[in-house]
Amino acid sequence: MHKSITREELKQLLLNQKDVFVIDVRSEDEYASGHIPFATNIPVENVEAGDFVAKEGQILVTACGRGGGRARRAAAFLSENSANEVYTLEGGSLGWLDHEISS
Asked: Which CATH class is domain 3-102?
């Protein structure tokens, strides 16, 4: 089962040097137009095809646009197919960028 995580909670994981892997599951074109700087682009279709295999013990965070269906879909798939902790980023990658720009 996956849960959601806030920007602040994600920042705390990163500051505590946890092994966190942030996956932007949007298409390559959408990813190119704006993304979280440390996110890796793996479209949801590729995640579901099994093209991504997480390292054991890694914390996985999925993000897409405003944190909608694709991020939840990828998180559900990863939760069912790995023993890793899996989260969906609240507000998604665009929410992250909006927050960073307005700060």
From this structure: alpha beta
